[in-house]
Amino acid sequence: xxxxxxxxxxxxxxxxxxxxxxxxxxxxxxxxxxxxxxxxxxxxxxxxxxxxxxxxxxxxxxxxxxxxxxxxxxxxxxxxxxxxxxxxxxxxxxxxxxxxxxxxxxxxxxxxxxxxxxxxxxxxxxxxxxxxxxxxxxxxxxxxxxxxxxxxxxxxxxxxxxxxxxxxxxxxxxxxxxxxxxxxxxxxxxxxxxxxxxxxxxxxxxxxxxxxxxxxxxxxxxxxxxxxxxxxxxxxxxxxxxxxxxxxxxxxxxxxxxxxxxxxxxxxxxxxxxxxxxxxxxxxxxxxxxxxxxxxxxxxxxxxxxxxxxxxxxxxxxxxxxxxxxxxxxxxxxxxxxxxxxxxxxxxxxxxxxxxxxxxxxxxxxxxxxxxxxxxxxxxxxxxxxxxxxxxxxxxxxxxxxxxxxxxxxxx
Length: 412
Ligand SMILES: Nc1nc2c(ncn2[C@@H]2O[C@H](COP(=O)(O)OP(=O)(O)OP(=O)(O)O)[C@@H](O)[C@H]2O)c(=O)[nH]1
Ligand SMILES: [Mg+2]
Hints:
alpha/beta, Rossmann fold, GTP binding, 16 strands, 16-stranded mixed sheet, GTPase activity, nucleotide-binding, 13 helices
């Protein structure tokens, strides 16, 4: 298995297992012979974790079997596709749903039907039998429904059998589980039988306004308990993204804040007048499995009354300066104070490094009195000849990507 490089490496290099940023970074994938439980609270779905894990594996040549009792194979595949995870020849489904509904499902090379999903022995023998057919991974969606169908003691003994099969065939298993309020003793037994548990929960305050996952246990990673919880968003299409709800982009007038936001995101909007921002910019960034919402401030002093509000709840900052205008540097620092983001993780962007008279990085550091721990990245316009003095311009992606990597790394 290739090493997971996360923000430092090329996403295509990742030898998949989870295919989910931060999870692969923390757990280095799912090794052979291991069982992972993805345990969700009822208010949040965990099915997208399944889709994404399946997709990462089937696209890298791993044969995957899905035991499916939650929905029909057709709607499962459609839902996967809506997240931009189309099936391929490596995906096989054991259909334990059609038999419940009585709706006839045609068997294909890739879909096998369990005629009587209420028959414990048939379910067991089909699943265990299938595991001998070279699957690198089996996904059970859903394990809690299996517990509802039969009873918890049954599914606990079923886990033992799955474990034996997975170990003897060098496979791995992912169980999708929603805790509908089962007896604690039973759930504890389940947790004790799996190698890793990943919790998926909502942050609830009357309404759910965020979702996070956290590694509750993992027996192949040292200090798994120290792993932090990770805010995420399930995006259609796109799947699970580690999510930063608010990153502030600030700096003096004309430094290139709007240019940065428009270059980093596909969907940026600005409230502008004559090319200058008068209220805010917003754009969402998708980068290496991460999603961040960027909020840009105006630079002109007459909008300073807005700054405090724009800085609220930001968790990190891009501070943008014009490399040719050291006289604005005190203003740059002042904007960190006025947005009340001084002290948050920050990456300084020395923009317009393409212009004559641009200061060198070291000089900018000195003049801004930057601590050596703070990252400074130089950015330039993609095409100097098309820069319009009344419009934000597109910045070269190298600098943008370096800046995103640097801040995201500090935030996780
Ligand atoms: N040559 C060059 N021009 C740039 C670069 N980045 C931005 N510009 C130009 O600089 C001007 C200001 O860019 P903006 O992105 O609007 O700056 P801003 O910080 O959002 O400005 P305010 O919102 O008014 O504070 C525009 O004319 C851009 O085209 C760069 O890297 N190189
Ligand atoms: Mg602007």
